[in-house]
Amino acid sequence: MNYFIRHLAFADLCVGLISVLTDIIWRATVSWYAGNIACKIIKFLQVVVTYASTYVLVALSIDRYNAIRHPMKFSGSWRRAKCLILTAWLFSVVLSIPILFLYEEKLVQGQTQCWLEFSEQWKWKLYMTLVSISLFVIPAAIIATCYAVIIAIIWTKSSKSFAKMKYDVQNPNERPGSDSKRVSSRGLIPRAKIKTVKITLVIVSVFILCWSPYIVFDLLQVYGHIKPTQTNIAIATFVQSLAPLNSAANPIIYCIFSTHLCSTIGSLSPFKWFTRKMKKSSESTTNTQSSSLSEFLTNNTTNKKRTVSVSTNAHIVLVH
Description:
83% of the residues lie in helices and 4% in strands. It has helices at 2-29, 36-69, 77-96, 99-102, 121-170, 178-187, 191-222, 230-257, 259-266, 269-319; strands at 103-108, 111-116. Strands 1-2 form a two-stranded antiparallel ribbon. Mean pLDDT is 76; it is low at 177-187 and 304-320.
């Protein structure tokens, strides 16, 4: 898990340094002064890190699927993780190669710009459709499928584990066989893996929330459903800023789910009240669950005592 998070953090850092920083400098200078070769290389690198940030998420989701689907399979996990990350970066580079030929230094409204231009509208439609499919639709579909299966597996195994625990409480004298032990061990999923699924699910949700408005708005604009008014231009500027915001949000998510960092932040005076509130809520939930289990065990024991008492009385009557 940490291996994937490191690569995702590196991709997000590159988005900030290569994509966002260069765009800020370009907006400050208005014109493009770096030359045609730098135009092609910088745009190529911007697209590579954007694709990498997305496809590393896909690799992370596939890895979480494998971890939940085969929780006891440890052999080859490190090699599989390396293959997934290598494939993610390789796809990012391959899908970014057309940018080297599409972007050029051109004169636009009296200013030199690093520009992408198509002579016909259908080419813009084709370009944006392909970008949307490769950057958002396919990754989102793979991620959604992985997590649908993960949730189904966790739900099924949790139900089986609870049923097995309930059966063991009701039948304490029955000695379980090797088959039931094997089923029980397979039915349990470590809490650490559940936590990694939670953090990945949050990261993926933020990815979809940040990228879907950008993709949908650009497609509507290219296909002529949004007119180029001043209001729509302002909305387009806001929507385009949401995409790199995804890379800025990921480190915050890492911090929230980091146990050591959360305890350090929680000890600070502004956050102490919130930490105490969350702790009380957690304790209340735990106490409720404990009391429910205790009540279940007490009732079960009482019923057994009653059964033993009845059988004893019956035995005494028969003896007399």
